[in-house]
């Protein structure tokens, strides 16, 4: 998955006083476009040394990453959606995580309690209101993805009714207040397909900066009737797929893609067993 960047490690400790130096990467975004140099590479500090404002983001090994408005420089751009394919992968993940923080910073300029401008907190990654002392932390929305299998060993695959993603996906949804992530699985599956599931098995999690989410992946088994009653407001397709089908999923950068790949290769059987 996109966050699998070994031997690099995401070091997200907050260092508000750290200054950029030569070679450090500088990110900025506009309308979900990644701002780059005209040759498509990311800006480095020496390219925009005259900029006065930088926000330290995180580091990976000896690589340090900052946020700064570089739109006044000659630049190009590409869709942030292409970050899932970016090479080297650790830079793609760095840019995606920077996008997550960029949205949070730009969507929280003013205090929602008193209306004054937020300031960067000096101790932790937070926005602090100096007037009413309100503190806002980065938005991280918990969500789940579930690979549902039936007794025939088929997988429930879907396609979304809305949005620009048209490839195969799995049932997914955000957690609501007052529920566990396991309860989210049960509710979302029933709402979108009318199915009931059992035998839940946690697989993996994934930070997903595109939607400011933390995704939790599960495998599950249909409990009872396998007839799909699709919510057409959420889905335009929901069907049972057989192993070895050609299911285009945009690769294994995403948790969804990796889980579908496990089904297609049969490797999910290494850790998940269907109940009789």
How much helix is in the residues?
Answer: 10-25%
Uncertain regions: pLDDT < 50 for 5+ in a row? none
* Tally of discrete structural domains: 3
Count up the helices: 3
What is the global morphology? globular
Secondary-structure arrangement, i.e. CATH architecture of the largest domain: Alpha-Beta Complex
List the helices and strands and how they pair.
Elements (H helix, E strand, L loop, with lengths): L9 E2 L13 E3 L1 E2 L2 E4 L6 E2 L10 E6 L2 E5 L8 E4 L9 H18 L12 E2 L6 E2 L6 E2 L4 E9 L5 E6 L10 E4 L6 H13 L3 E12 L4 E10 L12 E7 L13 H11 L11
Parallel strand pairs: 2-7, 12-16
Antiparallel strand pairs: 1-6, 2-5, 3-4, 4-8, 6-7, 9-10, 10-11, 12-14, 13-17, 15-16
Structure, described:
The chain is α+β, with helices and mostly antiparallel strands. It has three domains: 10-106, no CATH class; 109-138, no CATH class; 141-273, Alpha-Beta Complex (Nucleoside Triphosphate Pyrophosphohydrolase), CATH 3.90.79.10. The chain is 15% helix and 30% strand. It is built from three helices and 17 strands. The protein has helices spanning 89-106, 181-193, 255-265, and strands at 10-11, 25-27, 29-30, 33-36, 43-44, 55-60, 63-67, 76-79, 119-120, 127-128, 135-136, 141-149, 155-160, 171-174, 197-208, 213-222, 235-241. It has a five-stranded mixed beta sheet. A four-stranded mixed beta sheet has the order 14-12-16-15, with helices on both faces. β15 and β16 form a beta hairpin. The chain is globular. The mean pLDDT is 95. Residues 139-265 form the Nudix hydrolase domain. Its cofactor is Mg(2+); Zn(2+). Its EC number is 3.6.1.22.
